[in-house]
Protein backbone atom coordinates (compact mmCIF):
# COMPACT_ATOMS: atom_id res chain seq x y z
CA UNK A 1 0.00 0.00 0.00
CA UNK A 2 1.57 3.36 -1.01
CA UNK A 3 2.08 6.07 1.55
CA UNK A 4 -0.60 8.74 1.61
CA UNK A 5 0.43 12.14 0.23
CA UNK A 6 1.45 14.57 2.93
CA UNK A 7 -1.55 16.79 3.61
CA UNK A 8 -0.76 20.45 4.22
CA UNK A 9 -1.89 21.68 7.63
CA UNK A 10 -1.86 25.05 9.30
CA UNK A 11 1.65 25.64 10.56
CA UNK A 12 1.89 25.13 14.33
CA UNK A 13 -1.71 24.04 14.70
CA UNK A 14 -2.00 21.33 17.33
CA UNK A 15 -4.11 18.51 18.64
CA UNK A 16 -3.95 16.39 21.78
CA UNK A 17 -4.82 12.72 22.28
CA UNK A 18 -5.09 11.20 25.76
CA UNK A 19 -5.34 7.52 26.66
CA UNK A 20 -7.23 7.23 29.94
CA UNK A 21 -7.74 4.55 32.59
CA UNK A 22 -11.16 3.10 33.43
CA UNK A 23 -11.20 2.11 37.09
CA UNK A 24 -13.59 0.10 39.25
CA UNK A 25 -14.61 2.12 42.30
CA UNK A 26 -14.99 -1.05 44.38
CA UNK A 27 -11.39 -2.30 44.25
CA UNK A 28 -9.69 0.51 42.24
CA UNK A 29 -8.38 -2.00 39.68
CA UNK A 30 -8.88 -1.46 35.97
CA UNK A 31 -12.30 -2.50 34.70
CA UNK A 32 -13.41 -3.54 31.21
CA UNK A 33 -15.96 -0.76 30.88
CA UNK A 34 -15.09 0.92 27.57
CA UNK A 35 -18.02 -0.60 25.65
CA UNK A 36 -20.57 0.70 28.18
CA UNK A 37 -18.90 4.11 28.41
CA UNK A 38 -18.66 4.51 24.63
CA UNK A 39 -22.31 3.53 24.22
CA UNK A 40 -23.40 6.08 26.80
CA UNK A 41 -21.28 8.89 25.39
CA UNK A 42 -22.31 8.24 21.79
CA UNK A 43 -25.91 9.12 22.69
CA UNK A 44 -25.01 12.80 22.91
CA UNK A 45 -22.61 15.22 21.21
CA UNK A 46 -19.06 14.78 22.47
CA UNK A 47 -16.72 17.81 22.67
CA UNK A 48 -13.93 16.21 20.65
CA UNK A 49 -13.24 12.67 19.46
CA UNK A 50 -13.73 9.48 21.46
CA UNK A 51 -12.45 6.06 20.42
CA UNK A 52 -11.74 2.66 21.98
CA UNK A 53 -8.20 1.52 22.70
CA UNK A 54 -6.60 -1.90 22.43
CA UNK A 55 -7.95 -3.25 25.73
CA UNK A 56 -11.39 -2.67 27.21
CA UNK A 57 -10.11 -0.84 30.30
CA UNK A 58 -8.89 2.10 28.19
CA UNK A 59 -10.37 4.85 26.06
CA UNK A 60 -8.77 7.54 23.93
CA UNK A 61 -10.02 11.09 23.63
CA UNK A 62 -8.77 13.76 21.24
CA UNK A 63 -9.27 17.47 20.76
CA UNK A 64 -10.18 19.17 17.52
CA UNK A 65 -7.46 21.11 15.72
CA UNK A 66 -6.40 23.96 18.00
CA UNK A 67 -4.09 26.95 17.63
CA UNK A 68 -3.88 28.39 21.15
CA UNK A 69 -3.34 27.41 24.76
CA UNK A 70 -6.71 28.83 25.72
CA UNK A 71 -8.46 26.78 23.05
CA UNK A 72 -6.81 23.45 23.77
CA UNK A 73 -7.19 23.86 27.53
CA UNK A 74 -10.86 24.81 27.28
CA UNK A 75 -11.67 21.80 25.13
CA UNK A 76 -9.70 19.39 27.30
CA UNK A 77 -11.56 20.65 30.37
CA UNK A 78 -14.90 20.17 28.64
CA UNK A 79 -13.87 16.67 27.57
CA UNK A 80 -12.83 15.88 31.15
CA UNK A 81 -16.08 17.14 32.63
CA UNK A 82 -18.12 15.16 30.10
CA UNK A 83 -16.17 11.98 30.84
CA UNK A 84 -16.43 12.37 34.60
CA UNK A 85 -20.18 12.93 34.39
CA UNK A 86 -20.68 9.82 32.23
CA UNK A 87 -18.38 7.72 34.41
CA UNK A 88 -20.34 8.75 37.50
CA UNK A 89 -23.50 7.41 35.86
CA UNK A 90 -21.78 4.05 35.35
CA UNK A 91 -20.14 4.07 38.80
CA UNK A 92 -16.63 3.89 37.40
CA UNK A 93 -13.64 6.19 37.73
CA UNK A 94 -11.46 7.84 35.08
CA UNK A 95 -7.90 9.00 35.59
CA UNK A 96 -4.59 9.75 33.96
CA UNK A 97 -1.23 8.18 34.72
CA UNK A 98 1.06 6.27 32.37
CA UNK A 99 0.49 2.92 34.07
CA UNK A 100 -2.08 1.54 36.46
CA UNK A 101 0.02 0.71 39.53
CA UNK A 102 -1.21 -2.83 40.20
CA UNK A 103 -3.33 -4.18 37.33
CA UNK A 104 -2.50 -7.67 36.01
CA UNK A 105 -2.00 -7.57 32.23
CA UNK A 106 -3.35 -11.12 31.86
CA UNK A 107 -6.76 -9.96 33.10
CA UNK A 108 -7.18 -7.47 30.27
CA UNK A 109 -9.54 -8.07 27.35
CA UNK A 110 -8.81 -7.05 23.78
CA UNK A 111 -11.40 -4.66 22.36
CA UNK A 112 -13.33 -6.24 19.50
CA UNK A 113 -11.96 -4.28 16.56
CA UNK A 114 -10.21 -5.83 13.51
CA UNK A 115 -6.93 -3.90 13.90
CA UNK A 116 -6.70 -4.68 17.62
CA UNK A 117 -7.29 -8.36 16.90
CA UNK A 118 -4.54 -8.29 14.26
CA UNK A 119 -2.11 -6.63 16.67
CA UNK A 120 -2.98 -9.18 19.37
CA UNK A 121 -2.44 -12.09 16.99
CA UNK A 122 0.93 -10.69 15.88
CA UNK A 123 2.38 -9.56 19.22
CA UNK A 124 0.86 -12.09 21.62
CA UNK A 125 1.01 -11.10 25.28
CA UNK A 126 2.63 -7.75 24.39
CA UNK A 127 -0.78 -6.57 23.16
CA UNK A 128 -2.32 -6.94 26.63
CA UNK A 129 0.80 -5.55 28.25
CA UNK A 130 0.18 -2.50 26.07
CA UNK A 131 -2.46 -1.48 28.62
CA UNK A 132 -0.44 1.64 29.21
CA UNK A 133 -1.54 5.22 28.83
CA UNK A 134 0.10 8.01 26.86
CA UNK A 135 -0.44 11.52 25.60
CA UNK A 136 0.16 12.11 21.91
CA UNK A 137 0.67 15.65 20.59
CA UNK A 138 0.22 16.61 16.93
CA UNK A 139 1.78 19.72 15.41
CA UNK A 140 0.67 20.90 11.98
CA UNK A 141 3.25 21.21 9.20
CA UNK A 142 3.08 22.90 5.81
CA UNK A 143 4.98 20.13 4.02
CA UNK A 144 6.53 16.71 4.45
CA UNK A 145 10.00 18.26 4.36
CA UNK A 146 9.06 20.59 7.22
CA UNK A 147 7.68 17.63 9.16
CA UNK A 148 10.92 15.65 8.84
CA UNK A 149 13.03 18.69 9.77
CA UNK A 150 11.02 19.22 12.94
CA UNK A 151 10.93 15.53 13.78
CA UNK A 152 14.72 15.32 13.83
CA UNK A 153 15.40 18.79 15.21
CA UNK A 154 13.26 17.88 18.22
CA UNK A 155 15.32 14.80 19.07
CA UNK A 156 17.35 16.58 21.74
CA UNK A 157 14.17 17.78 23.50
CA UNK A 158 12.48 14.37 23.72
CA UNK A 159 13.84 13.82 27.28
CA UNK A 160 12.17 17.08 28.36
CA UNK A 161 8.73 15.72 27.50
CA UNK A 162 9.44 12.34 29.07
CA UNK A 163 10.51 13.97 32.34
CA UNK A 164 7.74 16.59 32.47
CA UNK A 165 4.98 14.07 31.69
CA UNK A 166 6.34 11.15 33.74
CA UNK A 167 3.52 9.48 35.67
CA UNK A 168 4.23 5.74 35.64
CA UNK A 169 6.44 4.87 38.62
CA UNK A 170 4.64 1.65 39.64
CA UNK A 171 4.01 -1.57 37.69
CA UNK A 172 2.40 -4.78 38.99
CA UNK A 173 2.21 -3.32 42.50
CA UNK A 174 5.91 -2.46 42.78
CA UNK A 175 7.91 0.73 42.53
CA UNK A 176 10.00 0.33 39.37
CA UNK A 177 12.42 3.12 40.41
CA UNK A 178 11.59 4.64 36.99
CA UNK A 179 9.67 7.87 36.64
CA UNK A 180 8.30 6.66 33.29
CA UNK A 181 8.18 2.88 33.26
CA UNK A 182 5.55 3.03 30.51
CA UNK A 183 8.10 3.61 27.77
CA UNK A 184 9.83 0.32 28.58
CA UNK A 185 6.69 -1.44 27.35
CA UNK A 186 6.69 0.58 24.14
CA UNK A 187 10.35 -0.29 23.50
CA UNK A 188 9.42 -3.99 23.37
CA UNK A 189 7.85 -3.49 19.95
CA UNK A 190 10.19 -4.03 16.98
CA UNK A 191 9.22 -0.83 15.14
CA UNK A 192 9.67 1.51 18.11
CA UNK A 193 12.44 3.97 18.99
CA UNK A 194 13.56 6.65 16.56
CA UNK A 195 12.64 7.33 12.94
CA UNK A 196 15.30 6.85 10.23
CA UNK A 197 17.32 9.97 9.51
CA UNK A 198 15.91 11.52 6.35
CA UNK A 199 15.14 15.17 5.72
CA UNK A 200 13.32 15.00 2.38
CA UNK A 201 9.80 13.61 2.21
CA UNK A 202 10.40 12.17 -1.27
CA UNK A 203 13.33 10.14 0.12
CA UNK A 204 11.26 8.94 3.08
CA UNK A 205 8.40 7.98 0.79
CA UNK A 206 10.41 6.28 -1.97
CA UNK A 207 13.58 5.04 -0.30
CA UNK A 208 12.22 3.99 3.07
CA UNK A 209 8.48 3.51 3.31
CA UNK A 210 8.06 1.92 -0.13
CA UNK A 211 10.77 -0.62 0.66
CA UNK A 212 9.33 -1.37 4.10
CA UNK A 213 5.88 -1.84 2.60
CA UNK A 214 7.36 -4.14 -0.06
CA UNK A 215 8.79 -6.40 2.64
CA UNK A 216 5.27 -6.84 4.03
CA UNK A 217 6.37 -5.67 7.49
CA UNK A 218 4.27 -2.50 7.42
CA UNK A 219 1.07 -1.38 5.74
CA UNK A 220 0.71 2.17 7.05
CA UNK A 221 2.29 4.68 9.42
CA UNK A 222 0.23 3.14 12.23
CA UNK A 223 2.64 0.20 12.20
CA UNK A 224 5.48 2.42 13.44
CA UNK A 225 5.69 3.04 17.20
CA UNK A 226 8.41 5.69 16.92
CA UNK A 227 8.88 8.34 19.61
CA UNK A 228 7.99 10.93 16.95
CA UNK A 229 6.38 9.95 13.68
CA UNK A 230 5.01 11.84 10.69
CA UNK A 231 1.26 11.56 10.05
CA UNK A 232 0.79 12.45 6.37
CA UNK A 233 -2.99 11.95 6.46
CA UNK A 234 -3.21 14.76 9.03
CA UNK A 235 -0.27 16.84 7.86
CA UNK A 236 1.39 16.64 11.28
CA UNK A 237 4.19 15.22 13.31
CA UNK A 238 3.10 13.23 16.35
CA UNK A 239 5.09 13.19 19.61
CA UNK A 240 4.38 9.91 21.44
CA UNK A 241 6.74 9.79 24.43
CA UNK A 242 4.55 11.46 27.07
CA UNK A 243 2.81 9.50 29.79
CA UNK A 244 -0.79 10.63 30.23
CA UNK A 245 -0.60 13.38 32.86
CA UNK A 246 -2.81 13.35 35.94
CA UNK A 247 -4.49 16.61 34.84
CA UNK A 248 -5.65 18.10 31.56
CA UNK A 249 -3.90 21.32 32.59
CA UNK A 250 -0.53 19.55 32.38
CA UNK A 251 -1.55 17.97 29.06
CA UNK A 252 -2.38 21.38 27.57
CA UNK A 253 0.88 22.87 28.84
CA UNK A 254 2.93 20.07 27.25
CA UNK A 255 1.18 20.58 23.91
CA UNK A 256 1.99 24.28 23.95
CA UNK A 257 5.61 23.63 24.92
CA UNK A 258 5.94 21.52 21.78
CA UNK A 259 4.20 24.21 19.73
CA UNK A 260 6.59 26.88 21.03
CA UNK A 261 9.63 24.70 20.41
CA UNK A 262 8.54 24.07 16.83
CA UNK A 263 8.02 27.79 16.25
CA UNK A 264 11.50 28.51 17.60
CA UNK A 265 13.12 25.81 15.47
CA UNK A 266 11.37 26.98 12.30
CA UNK A 267 12.13 30.64 12.93
CA UNK A 268 15.79 30.30 13.85
CA UNK A 269 16.98 27.09 12.25
CA UNK A 270 19.93 27.19 14.64
CA UNK A 271 19.79 23.51 15.54
CA UNK A 272 20.10 21.80 12.18
CA UNK A 273 19.66 18.08 12.84
CA UNK A 274 22.33 15.54 11.93
CA UNK A 275 22.56 11.76 12.08
CA UNK A 276 25.25 11.98 14.79
CA UNK A 277 22.75 13.69 17.11
CA UNK A 278 21.35 10.22 17.77
CA UNK A 279 24.62 8.91 19.23
CA UNK A 280 23.41 10.00 22.68
CA UNK A 281 19.68 9.68 22.02
CA UNK A 282 18.99 6.39 23.79
CA UNK A 283 21.17 7.36 26.75
CA UNK A 284 19.34 10.66 27.20
CA UNK A 285 15.99 8.95 26.76
CA UNK A 286 16.88 6.40 29.45
CA UNK A 287 18.01 9.12 31.87
CA UNK A 288 14.66 10.89 31.55
CA UNK A 289 12.68 7.67 31.95
CA UNK A 290 14.68 6.47 34.93
CA UNK A 291 15.40 9.68 36.85
CA UNK A 292 12.93 12.18 35.39
CA UNK A 293 13.80 15.78 36.20
CA UNK A 294 16.76 14.59 38.27
CA UNK A 295 18.37 12.91 35.26
CA UNK A 296 21.42 14.08 33.32
CA UNK A 297 21.82 14.53 29.58
CA UNK A 298 24.61 14.72 27.05
CA UNK A 299 24.18 17.58 24.57
CA UNK A 300 24.12 15.96 21.10
CA UNK A 301 26.23 18.71 19.50
CA UNK A 302 28.80 19.60 22.17
CA UNK A 303 28.69 16.41 24.28
CA UNK A 304 28.54 18.61 27.37
CA UNK A 305 26.73 17.07 30.36
CA UNK A 306 23.53 18.83 31.44
CA UNK A 307 20.89 18.46 34.12
CA UNK A 308 17.45 17.59 32.71
CA UNK A 309 15.81 20.08 35.05
CA UNK A 310 18.21 22.92 34.27
CA UNK A 311 18.07 22.25 30.53
CA UNK A 312 14.27 22.47 30.61
CA UNK A 313 14.39 25.69 32.63
CA UNK A 314 16.88 27.35 30.29
CA UNK A 315 14.87 26.24 27.25
CA UNK A 316 11.65 27.64 28.72
CA UNK A 317 13.38 30.98 29.30
CA UNK A 318 14.72 30.96 25.72
CA UNK A 319 11.20 30.35 24.37
CA UNK A 320 9.63 33.40 26.03
CA UNK A 321 9.41 35.39 22.76
CA UNK A 322 7.73 32.41 21.12
CA UNK A 323 5.37 32.02 24.06
CA UNK A 324 4.45 35.69 23.79
CA UNK A 325 3.76 35.35 20.06
CA UNK A 326 1.65 32.22 20.56
CA UNK A 327 -0.12 33.56 23.66
CA UNK A 328 0.92 30.52 25.69
CA UNK A 329 2.90 32.16 28.50
CA UNK A 330 0.71 30.48 31.19
CA UNK A 331 1.49 27.05 29.69
CA UNK A 332 5.24 27.53 29.94
CA UNK A 333 4.87 29.02 33.42
CA UNK A 334 2.98 25.88 34.45
CA UNK A 335 5.88 23.71 33.30
CA UNK A 336 8.47 25.97 34.93
CA UNK A 337 6.67 25.48 38.25
CA UNK A 338 6.66 21.73 37.61
CA UNK A 339 10.46 21.71 37.41
CA UNK A 340 10.48 22.96 41.02
CA UNK A 341 7.44 21.13 42.41
CA UNK A 342 8.14 17.76 40.76
CA UNK A 343 6.44 15.54 38.21
CA UNK A 344 3.26 13.50 38.50
CA UNK A 345 5.48 10.49 39.22
CA UNK A 346 6.69 12.26 42.36
CA UNK A 347 3.12 13.13 43.28
CA UNK A 348 2.05 9.48 42.94
CA UNK A 349 4.94 8.30 45.09
CA UNK A 350 3.95 10.82 47.77
CA UNK A 351 0.37 9.51 47.61
CA UNK A 352 1.70 5.98 48.15
CA UNK A 353 3.70 7.09 51.19
CA UNK A 354 0.84 9.09 52.68
CA UNK A 355 -1.93 6.57 52.04
CA UNK A 356 0.11 3.42 52.47
CA UNK A 357 -1.15 1.45 49.48
CA UNK A 358 -1.23 1.25 45.69
CA UNK A 359 -5.01 1.59 45.90
CA UNK A 360 -4.43 4.93 47.59
CA UNK A 361 -2.36 6.02 44.59
CA UNK A 362 -5.25 5.26 42.25
CA UNK A 363 -7.71 7.10 44.47
CA UNK A 364 -5.41 10.14 44.45
CA UNK A 365 -5.16 9.97 40.64
CA UNK A 366 -8.96 9.80 40.30
CA UNK A 367 -9.36 12.87 42.48
CA UNK A 368 -6.58 14.74 40.70
CA UNK A 369 -8.11 14.15 37.26
CA UNK A 370 -11.56 15.20 38.41
CA UNK A 371 -10.45 18.39 40.16
CA UNK A 372 -7.46 19.45 38.03
Could you explain the architecture of this structure?
The chain has 372 residues and is α+β, with helices and mostly antiparallel strands. It contains 15 helices and 13 strands. It has helices spanning 34-41, 69-90, 114-123, 125-129, 144-153, 158-165, 182-186, 201-215, 248-268, 281-291, 308-318, 320-326, 329-341, 344-355, 358-371; strands at residues 14-24, 49-52, 58-62, 92-95, 134-140, 170-171, 174-175, 192-193, 225-226, 228-231, 236-243, 296-298, 305-307. Strands 1, 2, 3, 4, 5, 10 and 11 form a 7-stranded antiparallel sheet that branches. The chain has a two-stranded antiparallel ribbon with strand order 6-7. Helix 14 (344-355) crosses helix 15. The chain is globular and about 55 Å long. 47% of the residues are buried.
What tags apply to this protein structure?
372 residues, alpha+beta, 7-stranded antiparallel beta sheet, two-stranded antiparallel sheet, 13 strands, globular
Task: Give the N-to-C terminal Cα separation.
Answer: 43 Å
The unreliable regions are: none
Rg is 20 Å
Strand content: 15-25%
What proportion of the residues is helical, as a percent range? 40-55%
* Number of helical segments with 4 or more residues: 15
SSE pattern: EHEEHEHHEHHEEHEHEEEHHEEHHHHH
- Quick one: how many beta strands? 13
Mean pLDDT: 95
Sheet of most strands: 7 strands, antiparallel
Oligomer: single chain
Instruction: Indicate the overall shape.
Output: globular
Structural class: alpha+beta
Amino acid sequence: MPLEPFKTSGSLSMGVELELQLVSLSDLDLTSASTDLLELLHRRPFPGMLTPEITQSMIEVATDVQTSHAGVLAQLRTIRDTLVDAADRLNIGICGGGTHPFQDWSDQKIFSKPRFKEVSALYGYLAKQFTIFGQHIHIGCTSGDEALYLLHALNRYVPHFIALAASSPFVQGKDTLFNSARLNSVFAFPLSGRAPFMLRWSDFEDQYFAKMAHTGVVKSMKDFYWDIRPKPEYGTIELRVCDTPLTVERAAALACYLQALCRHLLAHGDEAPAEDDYLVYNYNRFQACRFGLDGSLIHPKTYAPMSVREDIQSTLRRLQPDADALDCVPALAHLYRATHEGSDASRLRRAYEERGSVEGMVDAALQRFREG
